[in-house]
Amino acid sequence: MISLVFGLFGLIVGSFLNVVILRFGERPISGRSACPHCKKQLAWFDMVPVLSWLVLSGRCRSCKATISIQYPMVEAATGILFAMIGAADLPLLATAVALCILAVLVCVFVYDLKHTIIPDLWVWTFCALSISLSLILSTSETSLWLTLLAGPAASLPLFALWGVSKGTWMGFGDVKLALGMGWLLGYPLGIIAVFLAFIIGAVISVPLLLWGKLLPEGSLGLTMKSEVPFGPFLIASCLLIWFALLYNVPIPFLI
After folding, report:
1. Residue 143, CA atoms < 13 Å, CB-side half-sphere
2. What is the DSSP letter of 29?
3. CA–CA distance, 138 with 135 (Å, rounded to integer)
4. In the predicted model, is pLDDT for residue 142 greater than 50?
5. Treating both helix axes as pointing N-terminal to C-terminal, what angle do 231-246 and 172-185 enclose, rounded to 10 degrees?
């Protein structure tokens, strides 16, 4: 039951996150939601998370223009992630911080995927929340110095790639994201998560690259010149290991 409550709350938060993602840096997040095509304000029954999009078949009720699948995907993903935190055995304060972390990571994931950039405000917020959660959950057996150094240790490989390539292989936003991952996951899991992100990236990107080579020029598909954001791979890796920790799932790298 508690997971269901958290999941429903996540759906509502996911709807708000869509507004944050789409309006960030362009206009205030306040104000009524409207169709991006005809600009008609949306009624409350057209903004029910996931359900409204499905009922309307992904189209605006007024102008019938296609509404991006981003809306239900973000809402559903946030709902599922929140439900998983609700089911985890965490203290109340840690739960609140964990939910905030998930909200920020969803925003970063989608924004980086769309714009290949990670806003400083969001990534530093993630870093601050991550180290706060680690300190909240730390025990007397946990070294404070080890907790603090876990962030720089995880970001060091990406910082090296960024420095050697002068920013052509890796954006500095990814370095800062890895810093927060290290603080969230601790040592050595933060470092493992960074290297796992490369594996996930290869598994996803290589088939898309091969597919792109088979398509006519100008068709949808990756090429060697395509700019592929690394942030979503880092976040996917971070969430996999984080939830494994929360649910006491054995991590193969440490067996």
Report:
1. 6
2. S
3. 5
4. yes
5. 0
**Contacts (Cβ under 8 Å, ≥6 apart) of 50:** 11, 72, 75, 76, 79
- 41 has which bridge partners? 34
CB within 8 Å of 45: residues ≥ 6 apart: 52
CA angle, residues 210, 212, 217, in degrees to nearest 5: 140
pTM reported for the whole predicted model: 0.89
Tokens describing residue 35: 């169709």
Domain locations in the chain as residue ranges: 129-250
Which residue from 59, 50, 54 is spatially nearest to 78, judged by alpha carbons? 50
Q: Give the residue among 45, 103, 38 at the shortest CA–CA distance from 67.
A: 38
Q: What percentage of the chain reaches a pLDDT higher than 70?
A: 88
CA distances (Å), origin 137, targets 66, 93, 97: 45, 10, 11
pLDDT tens digits, 42-57: 776 777 889 988 988 8
Both ends of the chain: CA-CA distance in Å?
33
Q: Amino acid letter at 145?
A: W
Q: Is the peptide bond before 229 cis (omega within 30 degrees of 0)?
A: no
Three-state secondary-structure class, residue 33: coil
Q: Token digits for 142?
A: 């946990």
**What are the tens digits of pLDDT across the range 94-126?**
999 999 999 999 999 999 999 999 999 999 999
